[in-house]
Amino acid sequence: MSMNRAQALTALLGLPLLAQASAAEDATLALLRTQADRWDQAIVAKDRAAIEANMGADFRQIDGAGNLEDKASFVAGLLDPQLQIEPYTVEDFEIRLYGEVALLSGRTRMRGRYAGKAFESHYRYIDVYVRRNGIWQIVSVQISKIAP
């Protein structure tokens, strides 16, 4: 089926809109990647203000044992003076965008000390971010432990 001139012109005029949409999505992906990296750094540094600024008030976490945490209990756990987390990296990082919702997922190998005792964990996670009033915030985390 051949395109008539009107269809061809419409297709050509739509290309700049597609390019703009792609550029906007690329910028959002870069922003979310940076924001996730900074949140990980804030967790290691125990920077309460930076940790909380990235979180929605309605934040929830489902941990590897199926326990439910809210924002207050999650932050309190991270700031526990007995907990020391070493810098870690994320593997297989992926971001999927769905309008005002983004799913960030990957795998993390974490090491540190709790009450003076060394620990190591390996888990897969998914972080759910929501854009509200132009600001992306994490509202949900779920982790699943990966056996050694």
TrEMBL record:
Coiled-coil regions listed: none
Stretch forming the signal peptide: 1-23
Pfam families, per database record: DUF4440
Domain DUF4440: 33-138
InterPro entries from the UniProt entry: DUF4440, NTF2-like_dom_sf
Record's keyword terms, sorted: Signal
Full protein name: Nuclear transport factor 2 family protein
Provenance organism: Inhella proteolytica
